[in-house]
Amino acid sequence: MEWLLIIITLVVLWVASLFKILHESQTASQVAVLNDGGVFCKRNVLLVIAHPDDESMFFSPTINYLSSRGCNLHILCMSTGNADGMGNVRKEELYLASIVLKVPQKQVKILDHPDLQDGFGKSWNCKLLSKIIKEEVVNCAIDLVITFDNYGVSGHCNHQDVHQGVRKLLQDTSHKEVDAWELVSTSILRKYSGPVDIWLSLLSAKFHLSGVVHCFLNEHPRRSLAAMAQHRSQWVWFRRLFVSFSSYTYVNCLKKID
Q1: Dist. CA 240–CA 244, nearest whole Å
Q2: Closest by alpha carbon to 15, among 23, 5, 3, 27?
Q3: What's the CA gap between 54 and 137, in Å, rounded?
Q4: Which helix (H) or strand (E) holds 1?
Q5: What is the DSSP secondary structure assignment for residue 185, as one 8-state letter?
Q6: Are strands 144-148 and 179-183 parallel, antiparallel or unpaired?
Q7: Spatial distance between the Cα atoms of 258 and 255, rounded to a whole number of angstroms
Q8: What tens digit of pLDDT does each residue of 144-200 get?
Q9: For the chain, how many helices (H) and strands (E)?
C-alpha cells in the first residue's frame, strides 16, 4: 500500500510538472524559471558542442529560450560524430535539427578535424579547441559562449574536453570581454526525473553557493522532440526513452564560468 501511494504521488507530480511546462509554452509570457535580468537577451551567442545531437539532447531549452529573446545564435560542433562511421550522415542530421530549432543553417559549423575525432578515450587538445573557438568568436563577433561543464552531463570525455577548450580561451586576457556559461550537470536521479526536475532546478539555482545560476524552462518541448527526431541515425529506442525522461529536455541551468 505504501509503495502504491509513492507511485501515485510520483505520477501526479510528473503529470503536474509536464502540464506546467506545456501550459507555459502556450502562453504569451515566455516565462523562464528564473529571470535572467537581460543577461542573455539579444546577444551574439556561440553554442560549443562535441557531437551532432548534443544540441537537441542537452541544450534545447537554452536554444529555445535564446531564440525567443532575439539572440543571434551560432552552433560550433567540434566533430561529425564519426565513431560508428556515420559522420557524413550525422552532419546532415544536425543541419536538419538546426532548422527545427530556428538556428540558421549558415550559422552551424561542423568540424572534421583529424585530431578531433569522436570516441571515448580520444582526448582532444584544449589548446587546439581554444584556437578554433577563438577564431569563431572573432569571425562572428561572439560575446557569449555556452558549453558543457567539467563533467559534461554524461561524463563523455569529448564533452569535458570542449569545456576545457572554452576555459583555455577565457585564460586569454584579450578575450575577457566574452562571457562563458556552462550547462550544469545533475545527479543521475535528477537527470532521469523528467519534468519533475524543474522544481529541483529552481531550488538548486536559487540557493546555489558557488556562483550565479540561471535556470530556463523549455518553452517549446515539442520542438525539442522534433529536433531530436531529425537525428534519425541516433533515434533508437533507448534514446527515445532518454529524451522523454531526461530533465535536460525540460529545463537547463546555466552557471557562469569564472
Answers
A1: 6
A2: 23
A3: 20
A4: none
A5: P
A6: parallel
A7: 9
A8: 999 999 999 999 999 999 999 999 999 886 656 789 999 999 999 899 988 888 888
A9: 11, 7
The three grid cell numbers given for residue 33, joined into one nine-digit string = 524559471
Q: What is the pLDDT of residue 121?
A: 80
- The residue type of 7 is I
With vertex at residue 192, the alpha carbon angle to CA 188 and CA 197, rounded to the nearest 5 degrees, is: 100
pTM of the model: 0.89
Distance CA 195, CA 198 (A): 6
pLDDT of residue 30: 43
Distance CA 254, CA 205 (A): 9
Distances (CA, A) of 48 to 37, 76, 160, 236, 251: 23, 5, 12, 25, 18
Residues present in the chain in total:
258
> Is-contact 183 146, C-beta < 8 A?
yes
Q: With left for phi above 0 and alpha for psi between -120 and 50, is residue 153 left, alpha or beta? A: left
Cell, residue 13: 507530480
Residue type, 200: L
- Specify the amino acid at residue 223: R
Cell numbers placing 124: 582532444
Q: Where are the beta strands (DSSP E) in the chain?
A: 44-49, 72-77, 108-110, 144-148, 179-183, 213-217, 251-256
Give the three cell numbers for residue 196. 519533475
